[in-house]
Sequence to fold (512 residues):
Amino acid sequence: MIGYTCKYAPVELLQALGGQCVFINENVIDFHGDSDIARLKGIKYARTLLTRCRESGIKELVITGCSDVSQRAYDVLRAGTDFRFLFYMDLPYKGDKMAVMQFKAELIRFMQEYSNYKKEDIMMEDFLRRFAFAFTSDAVMDDEECGGSRHLDMPAGQMSFDELMEWYAEGLLQQEPCVRMGGSSEEMFEAEPEVVFADETTEEAIPEEDEVPDNTEETEEPKKPDENLIESSRTVSEALNEKEKKELPDIIFGGIDIGYSYTKVVLIDEKFDIIAKSKIPSTVNPDLDTLKAFGNIHDETGIEMEGITAITACGDGTKKLGFPVDTKNEAECLIKGALRSVPGARTAVDLGGRGTRAYHLGRNGELKGTAKDDECASAAGIYLENAAKELQVTMEEFFALGEEWEEDISLQSGCAVFDLSEIRTLAVSNEPYSDIIHAADKVFAGKAAEVVTRIKAKVPVVVTGGASLDADAMKMIEDRSHTELIKAEDPEYCCSFGAAVFACESGNEDDQ
Fold:
């Protein structure tokens, strides 16, 4: 059995993936309280959730991220409980196109994690059959605020898997609003949080895990999905991951970049071709972050760390790594990766999470000089990341929207901290996201262009770092610095790729 807590949970998706769903009636409280109050109530709510799940034998739980209390509860449960599967589903605040795209990505992430947990794959035809049956009737939940009537119509017409997930995300977000999504909140603060099961309104107890009915009693004929809805010969995991598996080389080299925002790992072969890569958000534990990144690669390719011939690491966290690796200066690795991407480059500019840095290179790639920003936060990639968080969009969506701006508005504060408040105000005032993002790009581009100008960049100029994926900002940096910029191949991984190249060169020297 898998428990879920509100009407926006992907019940149909769960059932299609083989989950037996039990609704947990959730009275979410205190959307507007301060963080300390929310934290305490979140702990109480988590304790109640845990108690009810243990009483009913539920070992799987999906918490919908409808409030700070839900987030706190998830943090508490994740820290020390015996759930076999625990998932926090981030719920967008709005129901516009960007929210749909954000929620679609969250649904696909959930599919991946739940499918991996179940350790089974189903044919897409069977998946669609289950998916179709889940839409045959309305679900009425015994909770006016967090449940209420829940209805989604069966999709019609031919859809790809990606289109189907987008349609489903939009359908979930366009239901009759609950409290958090715009409904009445009069009763929200009247009582202490109490979690009960919808089944407790009847005399029947919740059945044990092996006694749960499969919800396929035929009160009416289930609707059949369109035969052309999706290619039935594919499996769910194949739809989630289209990458073709390829034979792995016998000799593999690794590079680690422990960056300010992300920890990145790249694996290459003897020809310097990338065979695997992974990135995860950096924390205060670089050792664990690195192991998680290698774990992702192992899950995808089966490559064990012990089977890697040599590994080189760079970044501030290399001193804390708990396993033996060679280390290099971050600038050395970035330059090495940049020159592999653009041979003959005379300037390398890194638009990294921590700041903007530029390197003047000699004809043979030797370092001749450096320039960096003036320690202003708006010159760092984290400035753009924080702006994206304020707007609740992914970085990919942030970059795409920035190219669609129409009105050239500006942020007035001149300070990265106050800019975020201004971005929030503009969003609440219904300014188009594309125009707000362009305004943030303009601030970042102005600071980065100053660094490019200061280094007196010589062409070719290669640009690395995650912020180089921001086409709107890149164009403004070019215009303001009067310099043509060449984006490196895989710019986010340029530094970790350079580290891997060092490992390869070192390994080849040892063999000679």
Remarks:
- Residues 248 and 275 are 8 Å apart (CA to CA).
- The radius of gyration is 26 Å.
- The chain has three domains: 2-238, 253-334+497-511, 343-487.
- The domain at 2-238 is CATH 3.40.50.11890 (Rossmann fold).
